[in-house]
From TrEMBL:
This is COMM domain-containing protein 3. It holds the Pfam family COMM_HN. One of its GO terms (biological process) is sodium ion transport. It comes from the Eukaryota. It comes from Hemibagrus wyckioides. Belongs to the COMM domain-containing protein 3 family. The lineage of its organism: Eukaryota, Metazoa, Chordata, Craniata, Vertebrata. InterPro entries: COMM, COMMD3. Residues 123-193 form the COMM domain.
Length: 195
């Protein structure tokens, strides 16, 4: 399992008994799982058992722990994979066991959380437009400007292909800006797929 240097350092600090005793480690780890699963977010800074730990260090370890939790749940890590990874990060056997127990207890809920994240934003399936010419506005002032009514039909991959319509009105300059930005986005996507 590949982890960034920052995450590795945070987890190694969490494994160090000089910073976290076994009791504070267990409370911290419970708090890390709880912070992922609760809304509004519970904070590990609120636990009185962790008040004596430097707040910057606590924040770094919390970020590392939650990143690690999400990664192992995403990869559906089994006990041997999880334990060997934690041992490589210098966790002793008691901490490995405490982490694994909490992992097993919360794994299903974290999986539900991850599966609820929408991976497929709506994508455009069709475009239609209409040119209107505005002669006067509601204040009876002459306008004499073209106006474009654009209608995007979108399809959402999450809701079994449910389609919806997005309508907006724009001037010629706004339409030219939109077309330019869409061309730039298409080029960026093309470059990204060639890497």
């Amino acid at each position: 399992m590949e982890l960034s240097d920052s995450v590795v350092k945070g987890l190694q600090t969490l494994a160090d008994p000089a910073y976290f005793g076994l009791k504070s480690f267990t409370i911290f780890t419970e708090g890390a799982f709880r912070s992922l699963l609760s809304f509004p977010t519970d904070s590990v800074f609120d636990y009185p058992e962790l008040k004596n730990i430097d707040q910057a260090l606590l924040k770094h370890c919390h970020t590392a722990a939650t990143t690690f939790i999400l990664e192992v749940v995403k990869q559906n890590a089994d006990k041997s994979t999880l334990c060997s990874c934690l041992e490589d990060l210098r966790f002793d056997s008691e901490r490995v066991e405490a982490f694994y127990v909490l992992y097993q207890k919360n794994k299903a809920n974290v999986e539900k959380l991850l599966s609820s994240i929408d991976r497929c934003p709506p994508h455009i399936t069709d475009v239609s437009w209409r040119l209107d010419y505005c002669i006067k506005n509601s204040h009876v002032h002459k306008v004499n400007q073209p106006s474009y009514l654009i209608s995007f039909n979108t399809e959402n991959g999450k809701n079994n292909g449910a389609s919806s319509e997005l309508n907006f009105n724009c001037t010629l300059e706004q339409l030219q800006d939109l077309v330019g930005k869409m061309k730039d986005a298409a080029k960026s996507v093309e470059r990204a797929t060639q890497l």
